[in-house]
Protein 1
Amino acid sequence: MDYIIETENLTKKYGAVISVADLSLHVEKGKIYGLLGRNGAGKTTTMKMLLGLTRPTSGVIRIWGKALWGNEKKLLPRIGSLIEAPGFYPNLTAAENLHIFATLRGVPGRHAIKDALDLVSLPYKDQKLFSEYSLGMKQRLAIALAIMHDPELLILDEPINGLDPIGIAEVRLLLRRLCEKGGKTIFISSHILSEVSLLADVIGIIDKGILLEEESLAQLEQKSSKYIHFTVSDTAQAARILEQSFQEKQFTIRDDHNIQLYHSALPVTKIVSVFVENGLEVSEAHTCEGSLEEHFKRITGGEGIA
Amino acid sequence: MKFVVIISVLAAIVSALISCFIVRRVKKRVSEMTEVLADVKSGNGNRRILSAADEFAAPLAYEINDMIVSYENRLSAFRQTEETNKRLMTSLSHDVRTPLTTLIGYLDAVHKEVVTGIDRDNYIEIARCKAHDLKEYIDVLFDWFKLNSDELSMEIKTVEAAELTRNMLSDWIPILEERQIDYNIVIPEQPFKVNLDTDGYMRIVNNLIQNVVAHSRADRIEIILSRKNSNMEIILTDNGVGIEKEDLKHIFERLYKCDRGGAEKGSGLGLSIVYQLVEKMNGSITVKSVRGNGTTFTLLFPLVS
């Protein structure tokens, strides 16, 4: 597998304080990766290291398969980033501000500034100065700056900060579209579980600088959905018994031996004993339950994420 | 004289230096652009050449970018279809496996004489129904594949839709009565001339009613055909469970199923087929729903004047 971003044992110490420890991230092409963690978990430090803004104490960062250190000049222009507040001039308009960056960094087309502003629903011909912008508009402009040069990879630190619910939905849609239609790879951080689970394809959970888990949302949902899993000698008979003895129809047969029963309030032991009475061998039965939130609570050792 | 010579020599040296400098800049720029193009050539369609607007190479860079973007857009449409087909294959194997294995479960039980007498007959009847459901599912699947590979030949001609609809709905009445669903059907006497493919039109209306019967848990359905401006309008309303707002946006997408995680019968293709058929006949379909309060589908087809 070729990863767009790959880190190996990335560690950052500030004096004696370990901010990020042994982080090994894997971001696939064309996916949205959500780095989820509470405030102070090490998200921003990780992103700063990925963007070459601070040097790791140890460990390797590879972007597009190339070591970041030594190749910054080649790699960084291909990334769009939003980290903390970008330096915009308060006495200029949005378009004027973007124009300065366009001249400095270059853009891919004649209408890049207007296109970027359109994408974040900010007006192009507007006399409003940056200093008069609301927090949400400033955030939109920062996103416009990140996407203006149509980068292959976006690294966005808490991109929905300061946005109202409609703005959040718009940004979510924008990022999804960039990823699905444009084939961009997006790496975002957030401390809001519900937001990440709506947006990301893969979630990395970071707590106290340690990456606890890195899994696709589909896998996580599988883990956190409520069902009873049985491993039996014959799923065909198991299915018949579930229908006939328990009037259960919400099951999925995975293969000849594995069957999952959804939305059932029946006790597992009861089902198992009826299976056995009917001559089935049951080698495994377990209940999988709990929301994503509970799952995170479990893996963070009880404190939870958000 | 000597002075003039020195000046011209100096000028020559300076201009040589300047042109050297320019040549180096151009060379550097060209090599950067070549590198980007090599990356694009190796399959990275997201790469762009960045250039400030006033730079000498800007028009060339922008032109190349435009080309890359337009090819990339076409490729991404292909990739999305491929992705959907992949998902379809996975979900298909699950959707077929569960009912088929269950069906086998019943037949095996009969075969091994786990049940006898009336139970045995019951089991065979259940297996028969399941086989029919499975066939229905596979028919839907076949339709969908035909629609999506553009192999479906539509025979669009001017038909009288009021009579056609009346005949179709009369077939539904016994089914509605059997399921104890109240119905109110309003179709005016005057003719409605519309350009339709008869089979496709029947499938649209049948699919929508089938959905109400199979999934909505409604006990009342209303179908009203009327004239609206220069269109024939069909409004189909039920008082069933309704559709969640979040789901409503996606229901015409292929493979979208509202009831996630379970093994609810249904292919997730029905409404996608409806949508595509309606579009092919230049009609439109919209949906309104309130969770717990029922759903309304509105179909519009342009009338032939």
Protein 2
Amino acid sequence: MATAAPGRHTAEPPSCHTAELSAVGRMAGSGEPAMMRAEPMPARLRQGGEMADIDVEGLVKRYGDVAAVDGLSFTVERGEVFGMLGPNGAGKTTTLEIIEGLRVPDAGAVQVLGTDVLAHPETVKERIGVQLQATALPPFTKVREAVELFAALYRRARPVAEVIEEFNLGEKADAFTDKLSGGQMQRLSIALALVNDPDLVFLDEPTTGLDPQARLNIWTVIEGIRQRGKTVVLTTHYMEEAERLCDRVAVIDRGRIVALDTPPRLIAEHAPGTTIEFALVPGLDAETLRTLPGVERVVADGRVSVTTRTPEAVLHALLDPHAPWAAGVDVDGGAGGGGSGAGGGAIRDLMVRHGTLEDVFLSLTGRSLRE
Amino acid sequence: MSDLSISLRQVRAEQRGFWRNPTAAFFGFAFPIMFLLIFGTIFKGDMECLDGAFGSRGQCVGGVLVPYNTFFVPAMAAWGVITTCYVNLAMHLSIRRDAGLLKRLRGTPMPPAAMVVGVVGSALVTAVILVALTSAVGHFLYAAPWPVHWLATAVTVMLGGVVFCVLGMAITVVIPNADAAIAVINISYLPLLFISGFFFSFRNTVFNDIANVFPIYWFKEAMLTAYGAKPSSGGWDGEDLLVLLAWGAAALLVALRFFRWMPRRA
């Protein structure tokens, strides 16, 4: 299987603390600083000597023999939406909970908003907003009461009515929280994270388990948070979510950052070209596919995905009616259609697409995000 | 907000949540009252031999002879305090820990003490209501006397309440998850309730020796004394409350050292 060695992309511990480094240079796997500088910096990234909102160095957290977090280092800049993308159990939540001051790491240092979290967790908690993976609300509580309850816990809090209005919960203000839909519950959960007008907001899998409509709604909410200048750190195992919302994405696997960059650059570096996907057919195995002209990478993972920079030529070869695997091929189906079902051997469920973060993950780890 | 006002808000929110769940509130109250009705009816008019045993001809050997209801009402009031402070509080914390609610609160700057004061304060309010209800039912249905020593009763209920709340926090340390909570809690105190003589006193050296180690027995004794079922000067027997305090201190150390806010990792 032609996958890149994960080790090559492992985040290097930073050698020094200069601002230039924290702005761009510490992005893992950035082999070519010159090329990086040639690309425009995201406008929101600050330059100069100011500190990053989050500065994590050499974070390690073990549970028994298992290192849930295995030497993570990264920075998050003011105003950035920073994504942590990885499968379940990759260590995203543990990392987040250490940064939020909820767990103590076995090794490493964490600065949040210029404060050492391990030394002064209460100072940090005053200025951050936390939304946990499982929406935990006190039972037998109404929406308005929940917001009031959390607002009362901070020295500085926004007016309760304003928060309820902003998150479109006005109609539900007097409803019990267990009567809310999944999307409303999640909006409330995010509203509670923003009740203290934090500078930095943590959202742990904010759309997991939501239907597509509610997910879009939450995305709009998160974009609104970004527009108010907040720094957002979110974890997700949905690559569309990371691509759409995040300025930068840390791809995390087995407690390590295997790549960290903007989504377009991650895709350009780790999943370039076009991917052609189809169901595996008899007579056409990965070895044969690799011999086709223009094929760069083949992953056979239930479905076959072939990466190429010359999709026309590869498609032509695949759909060649005289090819040994072509018995009964249905050319009319076209991209995305396919599947005549006329005997075996046909290429079915054909799909042609550009690279995604899913491919990035696959290319870096050899596994799919949702395994 | 100051820590005090946060705590008071928490007490109010906890109380609101408690009474909005009438089923839980009812069953939280039901046990002591139910047993008061059952045993109160069965043994109405009987006599109870405190700290002694009935001899072959019905005489009370080595103890004090009192009407059954005089003994039973403070005993059931004591059970009420244990139910609301120990059982309910431990259940409450286990369930919220499992649901991630304690973790969520930990993500705010609320001092842990404020959360604890909220939960404990609410349990004490409920305990006082239950003690009052038990005493009233005992008085009006079974002609049991009102507590003789009011101050001692108030102090004993509050002190016992706080101690059993702290014990409730300490027991959550050995509760792995919410499903296991009720089993762990019941096994930790129901047998003691019987051998501590909450329903009828009896003489058995082995059981008495075991019971005398635990705070449940001493709390019942303190309540009997405060209610005037046992002779005393002013309703106090310093030893009872001292043993309770010692248990409270030990439980506090355990809770401070081992209390978990986070659900156990799946």
Protein 3
Amino acid sequence: MKRKEFLHLSAMSIGAMMLPKFSLLGNPITAEEALYEGLDVSTKKALADVALQAATSKGATYADIRIGRYLNQFVTTREKKVQGIANTESLGVGIRVIANGSWGFAATNSFTKEDIARTAEKAVAVAKANSKIITEPVQLAPQKGYGEVTWKTPVEQNAFTVPVKDKVDLLLQANGIAMQGGASFVNSAILAVNEQKYFASTDGSYIDQDIHRIFPTFTVTKIDRASNKFQSRKSLSAPSGMGYEYLTPLADTRVAGIVTRYKGRYDLLEDIKNATADVEQKLKAKSVEPGKYDLVLDPSHLWLTIHESVAHPTELDRVLGYEANYAGTSFLTLDKWKAGNFKFGSDLVNIVGDKLQPGSLGAVGYDDEGVKCKEWDIIKNGVLVNYQAIRDQAHIIGLKESQGCCYAQTWADVQFQRMPNVSLRPGTSPLSVDDMIKNVEKGIYIVGDGSFSIDQQRYNFQFGGQTFYEIKNGKIVGMLNDVAYQANTQEFWNSCTAIADASDYRLGGAFNDGKGQPSQSNAVSHGSSTTRFNGVNVINTARKI
Amino acid sequence: MAILTKEQAQTLLKKVLSYSKADECEVGLNGSEGGNIRYARNAVSTAGDISNLTLSVSATFGKKTGTATINEFSDAALERVVRRAEELAQLAPENPEYVPLLGPQTYKESITWVPATAAITPDTRAEAVAKSIKVAKEANLQSAGYIENTSSFTAMANSKGLFAYNKDTDVVFSITTRNEAGTGSGYAARGYNDISKLDTHSATKISASKANGSAGARAIEPGKYTVILEPVAGAYMLENMFRGLDARSADEGRSFMSKPGGGNRLGEQLMDEKVNLYSDPFNAELPSNTWSRDGFPLERTSWIDKGVVKNLAYNRYWAQQKNVQPVPFPSNMIMTGGDASLEELIKSTEKGILISRLWYIRMVDPQSLLLTGLTRDGTFYIENGQIKFPIKNMRFNESPVIMLNNVEALGKPERTISIESYRSYLIPPMKIRDFTFTSLSDAI
């Protein structure tokens, strides 16, 4: 985060701890203003046609326009206090063109026809200037126009229509449960996002979309001053492509086990009670003996390992070197894909990319370059078979059409290749988590995501978690502390020996995944069932200062 | 124009305050102009120009505060944003930690604005990038890099008569060069207030020599080693510690600065005697903002003196609770060192590892500030005072606090940037014993 943004953030008294990567381009607005529906579709279409016309008349061979209204709401609290309430809005137009074989982009927050035409012309001018220093012209995969279409996240309750007071009351009630249960501190927040985007292109698409995301989260901390130790436990919620209904649990929401986990919906009040009991236990838990363990990883944990070690290295722009100076490159080079037999993981490992799964952060009807969303295999029976690509990359991996992975964080940012949902398919034979644990002689069962770090080509990683349970001879015998596992991506996925069946399949996700320079944020889910990995190296992270 | 002069900013903010009916009102202005070029595979990939000016208004009734911002500047818009902040304040819950606003303060003029940087044009950026790409091509390497320049100002005023203004210029540049075979990679990063100090040609040369020099790396056994951290590596490691120089989290018992039994580690010898950390907005090499965001004038402040914790930041609320003077968070951070060059530090090393850059540092345990991350873009084995051969990258698990207890020698401080926050620091190359590597990485 840049310093200026930080100042702006502080001015709004938002708990900075909870909101490390939010785009703060927006201006605070009231809840009523958030419900304003904005420009009607016919006005947007007319403005879009102005832009497309202006761009082509100046020599663009392709043009697209995104008219966007981006709403964010943050409600953050600690203990009995509300730290911040902010509604932000950002409204404007981004125009992207190809001219002389090169991309150009320009954006404006003005909605006059004159300014939109001028912005389109500026994008063409940028493209022409850049065309002098490109090495090869852009090759765009063909895309049919869809005409006028719409898509909407199927929300039951728009989070922006829920009064702020209800959110504050829920969070303060949750904080109260933690403090009564003996927590020393508690932070909690509800974050909501609504992207209202209109896309039009010279291919003949006019796509109107209304996209919703929500993320309730907390951290409970307990301190033992005598030993000068403290432990925290984060919520086991999953940021979701849903409305406020995510916070209303249903009969089948709870996944029973050593600690309750959640599927599809979330019970904040129950989870914070459990978290408070967990921090108490964590303070007393024994420190792990380093060595090789069989790991049983819950989906609330495994999503992050999938995100870092599978989803990032299969981003085609990283593979090609476009992220070399920032996010890095990838060990999954094109030759490994071309070989057709690169064993990424064991035969059980089937990884799929999609932007369709209901409730997922990646679910949209069409991506930010007007490609209808789909599903495809990335790893099949352990073998690397595909990447994540957009229109100007499709030809590089022999595709006739884009996989629909294009996204921009706001209207003001140029769209580029971003991660879709990348998920591990569940096991095909019936297998419950209990049955999986029964077969583990010496292992650790990990719930929740924690510390994470991985190298720039995605070979070597280290992950922590929220709670760690020691498994001895098929039984959970107690909690462990100071656990982190380190592995090589390919060795790790080849050590995958069991995946629970579809009844255990759940989504986790990243609300703000960063990539690009200047950095842009993306939201993405990763689904899996509980999975076992054999003989993974576990280190002890306790130190004294 | 997004950059207002001090007088223009003051006139505008006074006008905004004149609309306020709240008990207390604080108004802020942020304006910035700048641009960037991103390149990869020896060609430009994206470029942009950005300009923005934002006004924020915080209105308070009793202990209830509301904030609103706007980027329109007609009289009607200014009044509207004040009314909106006041409406939000009336709806907001009471903030028990609200502290009344500060009165007028005296600030010295900052030295953060460099006209030459403010005058950067798209052509200046393109030329800087062209120079870098040329070096890479001549060395048969693939370059990927980024240049961004920003001119900005910040001003604040409040209903008690406080007015503060600062303007600054920044330019950051980073470059990664890789060989065609993908067996070698190098990096360099620069950040300045003054564009005339930026030499993309020489930075790319350094990156290129690291790329060529790192090819053919050998594996060594992970474990504890003496390391020499170049400033860009050291700054990234230490930045994670600077954020923790806060009294409240320490007093609350949830920081590495917490003292067993209660309180914080102020006055404790926490690090080696060679370690001195201070902030100073008037440092000629690393000038920074001269006031904190709650309006305090910033002066030279010692944080760690000969290894002893001299100061922790106290915001006004926490200072009141603890009955001490507030200590604002600093706007820069400087670590002192010696006169030795990096080469001299290498020469004085019998066995060790030179670390060019660190990557993906994340907190493992906030109690000990244990961090994990990896080496990247040039890691070399040193024997008998010479670089012997490149070695494969490794993952470390180490606490900067433990690291600063194991200081063997410090070199001459250099201005460098954190590769994650892009903030600039003045940090010496550091020779550290017993730095803990826990595994090997195949990444290049």
Protein 4
Amino acid sequence: MSGDMRKSLLLHGGVLVALFTLQFVLPAYHHGNLARIMVLASYAAGYNLLFGYTGLLSLGHALFFAAGLYGMGLAMSQFGAGTGLALGGGVFLGALIGGLVAVLALRTEGVAFMIVTLMFAQAGYLTILYFGAYTRGDEGFVIAQADRVFLGQDLSDPRNRYFFAFTICCVSFVMCLSVVKSQFGKVLVAIRENEERARMLGYDVAKYKLVAVVLSATLSALSGAAYGLLFGYVGASFASVQYSIFPLLWVLLGGAGTVLGPLVGTAFMFYLIDLSSGLTTAYMLIAGVVLVCLTLFAPQGLLGELRRRFWRWLP
Amino acid sequence: MTKSKTVPATGARPTRRDALKTLALGGAAAATVPLWARYAGAQTSEPIKVGFQVHRTGIGAAYGRWYDRTTSAAAALINEQGGINGRPLEIVSEDDGTDPKRGAEVVEKFATQHNCDIGFGTLFSHVVIGSAPRAGELKLPYFVVSEGHHVASGMLNRYTLQPGITDVKSQVQAMAPFVADNLGKKVTMIFPDFAFGHDHRDYFTAAIEAQGGEVLEHIAIPPTETSFTKYFPKIPRDTEVIYHVMVGPAVLTFVKELGEFFGPQRPEMFGFIDSLEAVDIGSPGLEFLDGTYFWEGNPRYAQDDQSDYDAFFRERVGVDANGASISDPKDVSTYAHMFGCWETLHVVKAGMESAGYQGPKDRAALIEAVEAMTDLPHSNAHPQGAKIFNGKTHQVFGHQYITKVVDGKLLLVHTTSIEDTFYPDEVDYTTQTL
């Protein structure tokens, strides 16, 4: 094992150990926050696979998050599926929609790809509203506490919720690290750096990009399904454009193309809003100023900047 | 062995300045007696903390601003009257961004960080539905002021209550007799194509059919729509009444284009004021509404037979006879809804006093005390009108008001009975464990 690999495993393993341990020491409020952050960080990690490593900027990832959320929720409310089946259904729906979107949207690139993904997400949002008889439209619906039991564990219980969120976070971590360290991941980075050169070297760029979109969508859908299960609510606002912008913001803040960046960015943004809202009603102004400063002084994000200055081995 | 006290040779005699200081301090302390003496009977002087989930940003900001003012006014009044169980009321506000995700986070913050006794104040339905599961899990009594049917429908949980404002189902069905008897029986409905609009579509259609009327056409407008002209040709020619509820900033365009479409030959029109809350009814472009009818939860304009309670409420909140801020006549209130905050806080006060509420361990007793309430008489605590609370469904029922636009003002033409708003129970929350 190379020195860099050892450092990487130590760092990422250490972060997971720290996340696991924190549940025993955090006060109730931050305990709940961290559970939420870990689930949303998985969403950001899915986004990072596509944006940070493949160089495809999507503005429609809320579609995949919502596919997981509604796939899980509707499987329960309309078909009476059990928790495990509903969770799997949500993830499958996200992967399926990811594949469909990829087939169509990857015919475009650059700004056109952004617009096409945005339009798909908007179509998804309006579809949820259109089928209001089943989805309850913009109001959404509640997943009853009795239905939120997985492997005999009540997911509305704070400890179980935290552990489930931690498991989702571990899955996304391992998946991202595996992809990044694999031959496949190196090709994605090659596509990001110079798509023409990757193609000239004989790689089927279209196929790689399609798999990247599906992987990214799957991880986003897993996060969406888990979010609905853990917090008991399925709503159309999670399919709105705002929730397509969030993962972009989290990844940019944390550091695009770093495995830890999405977690750091999600936590940073969460507490930036939470703490500044305690100081002033004009908290969005504070958040805006901080984000502008970060963009100016750490354009590669927090971990991107660390990698540039100190930890060049950071994956 | 004890130390003997020695008196310094100098400084033992008070100077005139010292005496004046002492008198001033004593006077100041005496002046504050009324402030603290009224809480002296309480076992603790710790405030009762009410977590106020306020829409400061997002689509609900206009409502949030007035909900905030009304809540502050109600809390000030309650504190002037001695607080709750001898303890002062403290409002802890957090912006939920009119977003269900942030709403749930704010509820968690109330329960686990601010250590609030209850959560309160939410208006928009999706924020209520997104937040209520967390309130139930955290066993935080969650008093919403939403007018959504979600509470009484049984979708939520025993910790969520709506004792200060009626729900959309009862509001809509109570309108049907007036519409059928006075405006016409052939109705075309225009509504936004999302859950709030669908509630109107479903409840009013059933209610007007029960009155012998019919809905000729349902015209659902997508929420992203900015121009409405293309929808108007769908209105059947034999329509006698247009029922409209268009929430959102496009309402001015909607009214203007509807006026251009019909000209002076229009059918009768009936709408829900939700579209025009915080909007001056005299705004340019709204002239077409003259002679049309509106549902109002509470009449925005002070009427000729205004009750003393309404006058008191306006004075305390800072609203003039036209429903605008006394400090800025252009700052129109959300008068049809905001009374709900005032009344809900008074229900909380009555519930806590009835339960002998001392702290979070008494939250279950508070829920049971509110569930036991029935009649809420017309009073300063309930200035909108008398109400009946249904402890099983956690929903209050009350009078509804129908006003007509006359010379740019909304004049009251009909008040429904409370019984007009009743419908069969759809849930019994009291069977759920606390």
